[in-house]
Design brief:
There is one protein chain. The chain is mostly helical and 83 residues long. It has one domain. Helices cover 72% and strands 0% of the residues. The protein has five helices and no strands. Helix 3 runs parallel beside helix 5.
């Protein structure tokens, strides 16, 4: 997955797979970091954020514990990379 991301860093599919790997391993923090990193890449290269659908779907899976402030911050940063 990381090799694919290096070759095509703007493609959603590679980022989705990386996030899925982190979630499957139970590592929600790394999944949130991967989502935030994708947001920064898109903002830097294209001036856009990840699609609302992608962000909602991934955020819902990451945030099953709403009390985790660091997860909320990372997912908000992914949705609004310039903020």
């Amino acid at each position: 997955v990381l090799s694919a991301l290096r070759l095509e860093p703007l493609r959603e599919r590679g980022h989705r797979l990386l996030i899925e790997i982190h979630l499957a391993a139970g590592d929600r923090i790394e999944a949130a970091r991967a989502l935030a990193a994708y947001g920064r890449i898109l903002a830097g290269e294209l001036g856009v954020a990840p699609s609302a659908e992608f962000t909602r779907e991934v955020t819902a899976r990451i945030q099953d514990d709403r009390s985790d402030t660091s997860l909320r911050l990372l997912t908000v940063q992914a949705a609004h990379p310039g903020a």
